[in-house]
Amino acid sequence: MKAKITLKDIARELEVSISTVSKALKNSEEISRDTKEKVQAFAKLYNYKPNNIAISLKNKRTKNIGVVIPAIVHHFFTTVIRGIEKHANAKGYNVIVCLSEESFDREVINMEMLANGSIDGFIMSLSSETQRKGDYNHLKEVTEQGIPLVLVDRVTNEVDCDKVIIDDELGAYMATKKLIGQGRKKIALITTDDYLSVSKARTGGYRKALLESNMEIDEKRILKLSSMEMDEKSIEDFFNKNSVDAVLCVNEIFTVYSMRLIQKKGIRIPDDISFIGFTDGLLSKYANPSLTVVAQHGEKMGEIAAQMLIDRVENENDEGNYQTKILEPTLVVRDSTIN
Question: Is the Cβ–Cβ distance between 61 and 45 less than 8 Å?
């Protein structure tokens, strides 16, 4: 009897990506004929079942929820998990958390591992690599079989499922208008490339606020990093090359690091320059000075996601009519801006 293999095993043996294997098994036109034949022959030889995720989930109720998030270093995702656990535990469900570490391959592997009869459905926030690739076959494989999936925060319109997001554009708009209202004229934005859904929306809100106020959008004052990972050199170079009097950052880690750089130069916060970040975490509260932030209400987001998922699990015939719930952000004003 041949051993059961996974997408990762096939990819490793044939020296191709997991994405290529997934697409080849679905007979995608994006994959060459030779590669498809090679992958499909190997899968047949080892009796690989491409829909094993869906099969295992459909056949058994476990009272477990699988959660896949990009990282826990960001305070926001820890609050999302807290909210998920709060609602799930109250309903008698357990929560199993896995990290994708911003990797597409790890995201796929985590789903495959969790779905081996272990869980009833998924709550996920997409990895940056998944959004950059635009490859959602592993999610579609689940949803096409009627398996409950709820996407939170980082989402895609390519997959039909329930979603819970914050109004990121509104949050950035509110923050930028706050800075404009304080008389700031040279407002910078530190964000990531637009392939990340949240960053694209926040950049849109920043631009909208400037345009409404008849202020010039200087592209030199927009720093787009390649990911949510800290890039100290790029941020330092940005401040060395640009004169700004206010900064909006896509997360609190970028913001607090930027504040430290500015303070080392002898520039006063908020007298000379104001800062606003996203996520109301411990870094924001205990920074010096304390940081004005756009609060994303991660715990509430997690509770709503868990409620939506459990409702799907317990109402198996209720497929379709997917909802996207949009939460309104809150601006929490502290000492990094002029009150």
Answer: no
Q: What is the sign, positive or negative, of the torsion defined by CA atoms of 68, 74, 77, 82?
A: positive
Q: How many domains does one find in the chain?
A: 2
Residue 2 confidence class, pLDDT cut points 50, 70, 90 = very low
Q: Which residues pair with 192 in a beta bridge?
A: 225
Per-residue tokens: 17: 């990506």
- The count of residues in the chain is 339
CB-based contacts of 214: which residues, under 8 Å, 6+ apart? none
Say yes or no: 290 and 195 in one domain: yes
What DSSP string runs through 211-262?
HHTT----GGGEEEESSSS--HHHHHHHHHH---SEEEESSHHHHHHHHHHH
CA distance linking residue 116 with residue 112, whole number of Å? 7
pTM for the structure as a whole: 0.81
d(CA 279, CA 276): 10
Note the pLDDT tens digit of each residue in 78-105.
999 999 999 999 999 999 999 999 999 9
Confidence of residue 1 (pLDDT cuts 50, 70, 90): very low
Per-residue burial over 215-251, b if 16 or more Cβ lie within 10 Å, else e, is eeeeeebbbbbebbeebeeebeebbeeeebbbbbbbb
Q: With respect to residue 45, please indicate whether it lies within any of the assigned structural domains.
A: no
Does residue 151 form part of some domain?
A: yes
Residue 100 falls within a domain, yes or no?
yes
330 domain-assigned: no
In whole angstroms, give the CA distance from residue 215 to residue 197.
25
Residues 148 and 174 in one domain: no
156 and 180, same domain (yes or no): no
Q: Which residue range forms the structural domain that includes residue 217?
A: 168-296
What's the pLDDT band for 18 if we cut at 50, 70, 90? Answer: confident
